[in-house]
């Protein structure tokens, strides 16, 4: 699970054996040499795989991009099998960003709320049980969220859509003509529900690590519970919550099946978020791949490479924040 | 604004475990009262009942009366948040808010009560830091993080933070146990000055410290591990250390146990 | 030190305090109001009345408390009510997910469903089952585990027991990177290698390769954590007896952390069992039983759910099968999770 990996980042590694490498190098026993070779080989294999992923995706992408007649970054078209092939990722980038932003806007505050509920508001037993259940929910596969989203969530959203159209329809961004609620907005809601457990779990861990002494310091100054949270808990947990959100964002960006099952894709950008339309990188690959020509597949691989780079950056940022946090949180813990 | 504390028939529990039993004592205003006793005798627990901090520990609950002048802290309708504002506390380990600057740490309690006028705030921060004998050391780095100070400075910062809100009583839970001897001396001097303005109660493991700083000393003990802690006696410090009325106190002070 | 103007002293420690039942009363009133408004305005969606109730709850708490208790207390109450609302908001969809899956899943889930394939049943007819998908899932996940566990555990051993210097740093970094790879990208990579370059057709093993890419980093991370928990004294004690390092690792370090490693592996398996995207690209899915993972399209549970949903033509029979398969999948993953946790608890370092 993502959550386990994320929290593990925060534990300090124990002091390793001094001179282990030297001892290993000096080893003359065949057993030692074979064993070191095997384990180092596995490590190198990981590197090779990563290099190969980057290389292959880039190679295939270049094949497609060199034939592309349209601007890859800004074109709204997707016709890689035409002659000449024309395709661009503007629509996908828009859909991916918009659905992820909606998901984050909903999920982050709610997840922080639940994390606080578990650590600071709920009775201890109840909090533990909820934490456990949310932990398990993080393991529910995305295909099930997709099925639930398509068959149970979408029919329930008509009322909400009607409301949004009534009160905010004039903005154009939230107007709705009454079709099925299979738009980027619904995708955003579903993604929010999907990444909620991850963000909650990591935030909860961080809030739990807030030193008791800091909370007591605030209490002893005559702070209410909310003021304790504002003075001691949130400042301490802020970077942790940010990196938790990044991990959630990484997952939302790359989510494939749930989006593919809920969105009714139209390869175009619509002004209204409530109208069907748009697409995401991952969804587009999944729904177009099996029917695509070789050129079409290469074009999809090119879009996959973009997704790969984006998630790399997001996850990298999350890890940087975690690493920075380690430096200054230790002093008074 | 120092106030008198009058405790009667106080029991404190952790869940179903009775941690301290039937404690009654009076703490005079403008005095330093030291609590001594072996580990686990409940002196820190008792201290935390004086500003209703005991009940923030899961399972913590209190029976009995704690009068602050004429008001029972455990009476009906008393707001524990208001109590903690009137009865300040300094903890065993210095605990400045790590994400706040020196200035913000001192101002933290004031800001809770909605004072935001910069000039007035500046004034109180300076006074509090002077009151904690810290001003000269930190006046050039008020905007640096409080966690960057040395341990002794951090503890004095915590004292400044506690006195900035002008409490009636200042509780100190082994304030020097995490500090080196020189910092300890600085804090002890400070306690002597602070008693002009506050009622001070200090828990300490160090009997010389109790003898040096306090006017009155209370000795706590417990019959055995797992039994509740009790107040054995409270008297003028001089008397406790020269001629205590209970044998157990004398044994403890002369180092025969504990 | 007089700044009475700044911090006005309350003469008393008594604040006007609302009774304990107050938030519950506001909650009840808000729910009633939400229902009433919905009934009056003829709103059909439960989301709407829940939102109305939530807004009333937060607003009511603030309004009354600000009047009676003052601004600070009111803020505190708003925070408390927001936290409760956040909790309930999140619980509703998550509970609904479990409830719907259970309710709709049990309809066709029986022995027949588990032991028959879709071979003779059209997607729009009732009948058929997930036998072929179960076989596919077990084989693909089994193979992926077979590839990932040795590589993952050995990599972790390298990082913890030998790793110094730049190679170890690079491996750590790229394992981190790997944990963030979207599953569809892992699928694309194997696809570009396997199908487009080696010119092989869809098969279960291709899917296993992609699943391995997702599984290896999880195994490495969890194993690493477990190995780090083994106290150095244990290693030194063994080395001091003249036991070679590799035997120390095999006979002392690994057995000590075996419980934790098993837990990590089971959680990793649980995670990849539900992966659909790489299977969609590489294994395709089929309605027929294919026991050979080395060639030809194979089914798998998540793929089965997707195909039943996508090819249903809106027919209830296909949806019922999709829900039943989802229930089976969740049950499988939950059992793995619970077992993993049980092992972790049982083998917890003492």
Automatic annotation (TrEMBL), chain A:
Main location: membrane
Membrane topology: Multi-pass membrane protein
GO cellular component: plasma membrane
Keyword Transmembrane helix on entry: yes
Membrane spanning stretches: 43-66, 86-118, 130-154, 183-202, 299-322
Composition skew (Polar residues), residue ranges: 1-10
Matches recorded under Pfam families: BPD_transp_1 (PF00528)
Family, as annotated: Belongs to the binding-protein-dependent transport system permease family. CysTW subfamily.
Stated name of the protein: Phosphate transport system permease protein
Source lineage: Bacteria, Bacillati, Actinomycetota, Actinomycetes, Kitasatosporales
Gene from which the chain derives: pstC
UniProtKB/TrEMBL annotation, chain B:
GO cellular component: membrane
SMART domains on file: AAA
GO biological process: phosphate ion transmembrane transport
CDD domains per UniProt: ABC_PstB_phosphate_transporter
Lineage: Bacteria, Bacillati, Actinomycetota, Actinomycetes, Kitasatosporales
Name listed for the protein in its UniProt record: Phosphate ABC transporter ATP-binding protein
Matches recorded under InterPro entries: AAA+_ATPase, ABC_transporter-like_ATP-bd, ABC_transporter-like_CS, P-loop_NTPase, PstB-like
PANTHER family the record matches: ABC TRANSPORTER I FAMILY MEMBER 17
Listed NCBIfam families: 3a0107s01c2 (TIGR00972)
Domain of life of the source: Bacteria
Automatic annotation (TrEMBL), chain C:
Entry's localization field: Cell membrane
Gene3D superfamilies, A to Z: MetI-like
One MF term in the entry's GO annotations: phosphate transmembrane transporter activity
Keywords: Cell membrane, Membrane, Phosphate transport, Transmembrane, Transmembrane helix, Transport
Occurrences of domain ABC transmembrane type-1 (ranges): 134-340
Keyword hit for Transmembrane helix: yes
BP GO annotations: phosphate ion transmembrane transport
Family per similarity comment: Belongs to the binding-protein-dependent transport system permease family. CysTW subfamily.
Gene name of this polypeptide: pstA
Predominant localisation class: membrane
Role summary: Part of the binding-protein-dependent transport system for phosphate; probably responsible for the translocation of the substrate across the membrane.
Transmembrane segments: 21-41, 47-66, 78-99, 141-160, 172-197, 203-220, 252-272, 322-344
Record protein name field: Phosphate transport system permease protein PstA
Membrane topology: Multi-pass membrane protein
CC annotations in GO: plasma membrane
